[in-house]
Amino acid sequence: MVLSFISHELKAFWRSKNTGKSIAIRVVMGILILYLFLNALVVGFLLGKFLEHAFPNEEVIIPFCGIVLIYFLFDLLMRLQLQDLPTLRVLPYLHLPIKRNFLLRYLTISATLSVFNLWPFVLFLPFIIKVIAPDSGVAVVLSFITAIAGFTVFNNYLALYLKRRSNINGWVFLISAAVLILIIACDFLWHVISLRNISYAFFGRLLVMPALALLPVVLAAGMYYLNFIYLKQNLYLEDLTARKSSSYKSTTDIPFLARFGSVGDLAANEIKLVLRNKRSRSALVMGLFFMFYGLIFYPSSHFGEGYKVFVGMFMTGIFIINYGQFMFGWQATHFDGLLVSNINFSDFIKAKYLLFTAISTVFFILTMPYVYFGWRVVMIHFVMYLWNIGVNTTMVLYFANRNFKRLDLSKGAAFNWQGIGATQWILSLPLIITPFIIYGPFALLKHADVGLALIAIVGIAGVLTRNYWIKVLEADYYTKRYQIAEGFRNK
After folding, report:
1. How far is CA 181 from CA 8, 185, 480, in A?
2. Which end of the chain is less enclosed by CB atoms within 10 A, N or C?
3. Kindly report the CA angle at 473 between 468 and 474, in degrees rounded to 5?
4. Cα angle vertex 307, ends 305, 312, to 5°?
5. Nearest by Cα to 231 from 288, 283, 144, 160
């Protein structure tokens, strides 16, 4: 029966109308993955020398045991962003005399066929064989390999479980990513905890207690069982729908947005779209990663204040730039429905403004810890926040009327160039350059405060005149709506 499943999936692939395109993409991705594997293998063989150089006063085995758990933490974060959910068209098999548990076991076990599960062995196995094996013996080597395999499988099923839960409730993904980022920040940014010490507390003890390697295996088995039970409970679509209607509170019931009436409902639906789809969710997660962007520039005195303006604009407005350039493309699959619906398009635009303002406000609040580098940094962030919600939002919506490429929301953003063309790159330049046209001359004349004040004034003026710009955008949209719709119909 397993061979039949594999045969059916192969037939579905070869009979697809996009087979040629899929093969080309897989060949390119295969070459890229092979190149990355070769690089990882080189790093694996040289890992001992890297650790000796980084930790010259310690035996190389100590820092190795200290980084393994840190690797798996970042591995989980990457899986949440990049790993695809394994799929099987289960519905055609449900009426056949096939045991449901067998279907689910196949779907769950096949989920281990991911390139993410090979990386830790490519990175760590050469070091284990070269360094640990000669001094510690076969039992310790097997314990390290078993522990790494256990954590790999645990991460695999934990990421899949969180992503499946996110398909029902988008907040699950957002909270999970936020917790992981918070844990990383508590170590590398605030030094509240030491992930290295926690990692060594486990892997260091494998040198004297190899039986501890069974602990990650138990965790992996438990996570496998949790995935199996979850899939079994959601095998039938009507079960999932019934549970959603009874136990899951719709994200449209957001008290803050409810006060805005129909505009709030549209903004809440947009938030639901962002959280429930891979491509749009990637834009939000990328924005959260950019919250650490300032750590590249602020600790060094070599970067001038112009970099702070640039960083402040990106950290408070990256979602506006990244998500907004495909503004109507996110609704490409049902854009024809929007054309014939009774939705007031000015409300539709107002909902976009509300979404941008709300998320940009959250991002500005998240940058507040940069007060550590001085209150002027926070002031610059606030100035660029005003610029983003007052000017960049309008510019993005204006450019959206000139983007006719559809997007597939089910695909992630990594290595996905669908909907991206030269137009998007060109249209992004004014978003980045315009504030420096105002700020630059005053900065060169040693009057940077005047430049910042003008940026803030222009941003506030953009917010206060937003109703006027909504009318302009609405009129511009009506001249191009059929051209946009025609572009979205081309798959």
Report:
1. 40, 6, 41
2. C
3. 95
4. 100
5. 160
Match 């954590």 to its residue by tokens: 151
State the Cα–Cα distance between residues 192 and 8, nearest whole angstrom: 52
What integer pLDDT is reported at residue 491 of this predicted model?
59
Global pTM value = 0.59
Contacts 24+ apart (CB under 8 A), 2-11: 2/106, 5/88, 5/106, 8/89, 9/88
Q: What are the structural domain ranges in the chain?
A: 44-247, 255-489
Q: 128: burial class by Cβ within 10 Å (0-12, 13-18, 19+)?
A: buried
Q: Give the DSSP H or E segment for 487.
A: helix 466-489
Q: Where are the alpha helices (DSSP H) in 367-447?
A: 375-387, 393-400, 422-444
Tens-place pLDDT, residues 431-458: 888 898 999 889 888 888 899 999 999 9
Could you write out the three-class secondary structure of 283-311? HHHHHHHHHHCHHHHCCCCCCCHHHHHHH
Name the residue with higher pLDDT: 97 or 232.
232
Percent of the chain with pLDDT over 90: 32
Reference 397, options 408, 406, 388; nearest CA is: 388
CA pair distance 305, 170, nearest whole angstrom: 38
- Helices 214-233 and 138-168 pack at an angle, to 10 degrees, of 20
pLDDT for 180 beyond 80: yes
